[in-house]
Structure formats: structure tokens, C-alpha cells
Design brief:
eight-stranded parallel sheet, about 650 residues, alpha/beta, 24 strands, 21 helices, five-stranded antiparallel sheet
Length: about 650
């Protein structure tokens, strides 16, 4: 079988047109690597696809030409039979009264050939939200300043921001991904390049608020802590050293003298998150022990084994395994406290959390699910007007055959972890549910391929978990969007993500009016990858990118034209000012049910949190906000903000 035939079987598109209309054909050597990195797809002759049933809607599946009639089918939940029947012709009409869930359907044709196919029964739509129109304060949690933190924003800072935002009538707080990073690589601080999307970053724990922490255990003196929190940029290495020492001191007290109530609560958390929690803790211990990527570990540890993990926890390494479980418990408990506080303050959204599109290939998730996550391929994006060379994000993503082999459990686990305390989540690069742009290691970003994903199945799982957790799902649908894709998302109740910077006529540059915006959408002026409002008006982003050799994708004249076009759309609404509150007034009037307002914009910050395509050229994910939480109320224009968001305010 030649490469191109094999690629077609795996859903690999061997050529595509990029956002600039240029045709790309994948080099054969790159194609071979991609094929080798994806598991073999299951061969079927009775049903060639996963069965997805939406409750209350008729659903039929067509049998393959090789099926010998009649075909007997049985829907199974574990060992129990939910429904069964016989297809006398080449289609199966599935029952409409099945409960939401994940099942297997076993088919046997007249020749005796048998096969199993996943069957997903989903609600007709994802959760639609228990609010009409609301708004959020969007913030990078690490960037919060306060008079008490240890050099990085933490969950107590988040609680204080919740109090402030609630007093302004906000319905929630939008946050960067809180995923677990690598404790021994603090410089790898991008929240979008996680070790695991299933667990939290313990650097956000307020160590001093832990019951087991004593002031006598503070790892450094007050002056050193003050210096850690005062700099313009976060010193992640120094902060991590202090934080982890503080967490270890708290754990030692817990291990030797925890109260019965605290020990019971910890054990309840362990049971609830089993077996993933212990696997994660063992992975962290093994990673430190072996000092190499997991694929170079001793053979018996290259794949997770719960029996071996239990033995590791029961042996000499047990306290170290328990420490990593303890750190996750502390983070989980404090984040839950923030969720509960938001609810108590009447916030109708609560926490809005971001979910990264992929993971580091040498991290826990890739070790835990090597079939479903392709460690030798990097997720990225083809060339487009903003990134003419294409993008390679250096992240491993899911693959379709592996997800099917695992019954979509890795995707489901990721959603559950993200929705655990969230009223809304954003799926970064939601286009990846339809197809992922993958670049084999060692190749340029423009030499990748699109690989088809099981969109309907992934949307069904998303709807299941969204309804179960009462969590709105927003898809970051920016970039080169295939025709009809947004309509399919909307049909499943997945909200759109609309960035005003991009909501313009492609040729003339004018901004779209209010009616252009969808009701089921989150609207915002910018993102963490774009200029702040002040930076955009001052062209700070253009000057910065040119100074570091990055193509800004825009000329000074184009920016001046954009500013003029912004003034026009505001004046069309009777808005005469051109400050951030004028823009927020416009966005608040759109039909879109959620408005996100970046805290950087309210504080007049010039520099953006992240410049895509840079590593060391710009202090990505390191810059603190210029004002401490305690000082923010005196800096923002409260009256203008309240006026802009008047018809979106909660009772807070």
C-alpha cells in the first residue's frame, strides 16, 4: 500500500490551501513520519464509523457493502444489554429512548462476522447557561500583584479579585489555563504548554493559608518575599523554589500530625480522583528519579500500571508520591473555594477556564495515554496573514484512532478536569475537533498536514459533559475556519468566540456593526496573543515585533486606517469617545451573551501577555500587572465601567 492510500485511510489530507490561498503538498518523508506516529485505524466492514445518537432525534446508520444480511445488533453498557434488534436491510434505526452515555454496539452478520463499534448517546445540545447577558473580568492569574503573595498571583488573590469584580456587577472571572506544568522546569511557564491538562499548577496555591503551614516554616524572610513580588517580571525560578519549599514544609506537618478531619478529606479526594491522581503523582516521582523523558525509562515504567503505582506508593517512595497528591489536593481545595465564593457573591458564570489545545510530549498526559496522544507530532497552524511562516506550537495532541481505541476516555477526562469548578470553559483552537494541523518533529511549520478528527463523536462527548457539569462551552474558532464548521458547533450548542479586532471587512477594513455578533458567543476586544487596547492605539505591538524581527502583518498606515474605522463604528452608535470604555460600551451592546474585559485593558497596560512565534525575544507569560489588587479600584474608571456594562450587571 502506497503512502497516499495509507494516509487516506487514516484521515490525513496530503494537500491543502492555506489562509493565503497557496497550495501545499506534504513531502513524502514528512507524510511517512506522520503515518507511523498514528495508531492503525480499526478495520470494519459492517459499520465504518462511530455511532452518535442525539436524544430525541431519529438516527440511522448505513451498513457497509460487505455486510451479509441480516445483521444482528446489541447495545451494551459494560456486561448489560440496553437494546437489541436485527437489520433486514442496509440501515439500522437506533432506539430514541437511550440514556445519555457511552456504550458499545456489537454487530454480527449472516456470515458470522462480528465487530464492535463505539456508540455515544448525547443530549441534543450542550448546556446553554443559566443567565441572559453577563460579563467577565479576564486576567492572567500569575500576573496579579498583591501585598501578600509570594511573587506570583495565587488563589487568595483570585478570591480578592472575585470580591472586586462582584462589586462591579461582573458575572465571573476568566482565567488563563491552570494546568499542571513541570515543577523542575519553572522557566517553561507558558500555561498553554502543560505537563497535564488533568491537574492543576500548585504554584497558584496560597501556602500561608494552608492549615498545616506555620509562620515559622516560611522558607525566606519577609524582605525576600517582598523583592519577589515587586519586580516588573516574575522570577519563576525563585518563586518556584520558595513555593515548593513552603508546600513541602506544610506536607511534613500534614504527614506527621494531620487532624483526623484533614486526613479524611485528603483520602476522600484521593478516592475521587483515582486512579489518575496516583498515576500523576507516581509519574512525577519517576520523572525526578530517572531524569529522562518517559520513553527512555525502564521498560516496566514506560506505560502506567496501577498495580506498580500502588507498590511504589506503598514502598520507600511513598511519602514523595503522597506529597504530589497533597499538592494537588491543596490546589483543588483552594480553587473550589474560589468557585464557591463566586457563587455566594451571586456571579452567574463564576469561573471561566481556558483549556490548552495540547500537552508537552514528555509530560504526564502523553505517558498516560500514548495511544490517544501522538508524541512525535506537534499541533500547529498553517501559514495565514498573521503568521506567514505557519506555526508549530510544540504540543502533542489527540489522534482519532487512539481516541476510538480508548473509548474517548482521555478527551472526557480532560473535559471533566476543566469543568470541575467552571461555569464556562474555552476550548483553545476548537477547530482541532474537526481536523488538526500536525507537524512531524524536525520539519518546518509549513510542512505539516491536516488530519481528520471524529468531530461528531467529540461534540457528543462535549455535550454530555457540559450538561452533566452545567458548564457552557466556548470554542475558540479563530483562524482559517472551514465552511459550515461554525454552524455545526452552534447546532450542538457550542458557543463562538468573537474578537472585535478580527470582526472587520477583509477588503475595506471597516468594523462590523452590532447585528453581526451572535447571541451564543463570547465577545472581547482582544486576546492574550494580541495587543492590549492601549498598545493597539499606540502601535506598541507593531514597533515591538519589528524590533525583534517578527513580521507584524500590518503596516503603520493600516493601523491608522483601523483606528479611523473604529472611530466610525463607535460614532455610528452615538459613542463619541475613543477610550477603552467607549469600546466596552459598544461590545456590551452586542447580542453576544458574554463579554470578556481584559484587566490589562482596564489598567492601560501597553504590552501584551504573549507574542506568538517568540520564545526569548519577549517576556511571554512573565509580566505582572502594574497595580496591586488593593489599588485597582482607585485606578479604573468605575463610573464609566458601570455605565458600559449596565444591562449586563449581576446583583453583586
Amino acid at each position: 500500500m502506497d503512502l497516499f492510500t495509507k494516509a487516506a485511510e487514516l484521515g490525513i489530507q496530503t494537500e491543502f490551501y492555506d489562509g493565503q490561498g497557496r497550495r501545499h503538498v506534504t513531502p513524502p518523508e514528512a507524510l511517512g513520519l506522520i503515518i507511523d506516529a498514528i495508531p492503525e485505524a480499526a478495520e470494519r466492514r459492517l459499520l465504518d464509523r462511530i455511532v452518535v445518537i442525539r436524544q430525541g432525534e431519529p438516527n440511522r446508520s448505513e451498513l457497509g457493502a460487505g455486510a451479509a444480511l441480516p445483521v444482528r445488533w446489541v447495545i451494551m453498557a459494560a456486561a448489560a444489554t440496553l437494546a437489541e434488534g436485527t437489520a433486514e436491510d442496509r440501515s439500522i434505526a437506533w432506539p430514541q429512548d437511550l440514556p445519555s452515555g457511552s456504550y458499545r454496539v456489537r454487530l454480527t452478520d449472516a456470515s458470522g462476522h462480528a465487530e464492535e463499534v463505539p456508540l455515544l448517546v448525547a443530549p441534543p445540545h450542550a448546556f446553554g447557561g443559566a443567565f441572559d447577558r453577563s460579563w467577565l473580568v479576564a486576567v492572567q492569574l500569575y500576573s496579579l500583584r498583591s501585598s501578600r503573595n509570594w511573587g506570583i498571583g495565587d488563589f487568595t488573590d483570585l478570591a480578592n479579585l472575585i470580591e472586586l469584580a462582584a462589586s462591579l456587577g461582573a458575572g465571573g472571572i476568566g482565567l488563563n489555563p491552570l494546568h499542571a506544568l513541570f515543577d523542575d522546569r519553572p522557566g517553561d511557564c507558558s500555561p498553554y504548554s502543560p505537563n497535564s491538562r488533568l491537574f492543576l499548577n500548585p504554584l497558584y496555591v496560597d501556602v500561608e493559608s494552608l492549615p498545616e503551614f506555620s509562620g515559622n516554616d516560611r522558607p525566606v524572610d519577609a524582605q525576600t518575599l517582598a523583592s519577589l513580588r515587586d519586580g516588573e517580571l516574575i522570577d519563576y525560578a525563585a518563586v518556584a523554589a520558595v513555593k515548593w519549599r513552603g508546600l513541602r514544609a506544610a506536607y511534613e506537618t500534614f504527614r506527621t500530625s494531620a487532624s483526623a478531619a484533614r486526613r479524611d478529606a485528603f483520602e476522600a479526594f484521593r478516592r475521587e480522583r483515582a486512579p489518575l491522581l496516583t498515576r500523576f503523582a507516581c509519574f512525577e516521582v519517576l520523572r525526578h528519579k530517572f531524569g529522562h523523558p518517559w520513553w527512555d525509562w525502564p521498560e516496566e515504567w514506560r506505560h502506567p500500571d496501577d498495580t506498580r503505582c500502588a507498590q511504589l506508593r506503598a514502598g520507600p517512595d511513598g511519602p514523595e508520591v503522597e506529597f504530589f497528591e497533597f499538592a494537588q489536593w491543596c490546589a483543588d481545595d483552594q480553587l473550589r473555594g474560589c468557585r464557591d465564593l463566586a457563587a455566594a457573591r451571586g456571579m452567574n458564570v463564576g469561573l471561566y477556564l481556558d483549556v490548552a489545545v495540547g500537552v508537552q510530549s514528555d509530560g504526564f498526559d502523553a505517558w498516560n495515554e500514548p495511544a490517544a496522544i501522538s508524541r512525535l507530532l506537534s499541533v500547529g497552524a498553517p501559514p495565514d496573514p498573521l503568521n506567514t511562516a505557519g506555526q508549530n506550537w510544540g504540543l502533542a495532541g489527540f489522534n482519532a484512532p487512539g481516541l476510538e481505541l480508548t473509548g474517548f476516555a482521555p478527551f472526557r477526562d480532560m473535559l471533566r478536569a476543566s469543568m470541575r469548578y467552571a461555569g464556562a470553559i474555552r476550548l483553545d483552537h476548537v477547530l482541532g475537533l474537526n481536523r488538526l494541523y500536525l507537524v512531524p518533529h524536525g520539519f518546518a511549520a509549513n510542512q505539516g498536514v491536516y488530519v481528520r478528527m471524529p468531530l461528531e463523536a467529540l461534540l457528543a462527548v462535549t455535550a454530555q459533559e457540559s450538561v452533566a457539569h452545567r458548564c457552557v462551552v466556548i470554542g475558540e474558532d479563530l483562524g482559517t475556519v472551514p465552511d459550515g464548521f461554525r454552524d455545526r458547533l452552534a447546532a450542538w450548542g457550542i458557543w463562538s468566540y468573537r474578537v472585535m479586532m478580527f470582526e472587520r471587512d477583509f477588503h475595506q477594513g471597516w468594523f462590523f456593526g452590532l447585528d453581526h455578533y451572535l447571541p451564543n458567543a463570547l465577545v472581547t476586544f482582544n486576546t492574550h496573543d494580541l495587543a492590549t487596547y492601549s498598545g493597539w492605539r499606540a502601535s506598541t505591538d507593531l514597533h515591538l515585533k519589528r524590533s525583534i524581527g517578527v513580521d507584524p502583518g500590518e503596516s503603520d498606515d493600516s493601523r491608522r486606517h483601523a483606528l479611523a474605522m473604529l472611530g466610525d463604528v463607535l460614532r455610528n452608535q452615538g459613542i463619541e469617545q475613543d477610550d477603552i470604555y467607549a469600546v466596552l460600551t459598544f461590545l456590551a451592546r452586542t447580542p453576544s451573551r458574554l463579554l470578556a474585559i481584559a484587566l490589562e485593558d482596564l489598567l492601560g497596560v501597553l504590552d501584551q501577555p504573549n507574542v506568538p512565534g517568540t520564545v526569548s525575544e519577549h517576556p511571554n507569560w512573565r509580566r505582572r500587572l502594574p497595580k496591586a489588587i488593593e489599588d485597582i479600584p482607585a485606578v479604573i474608571n468605575r463610573q464609566a465601567l458601570l455605565a458600559a456594562t449596565a444591562d449586563r450587571r449581576t446583583a453583586g
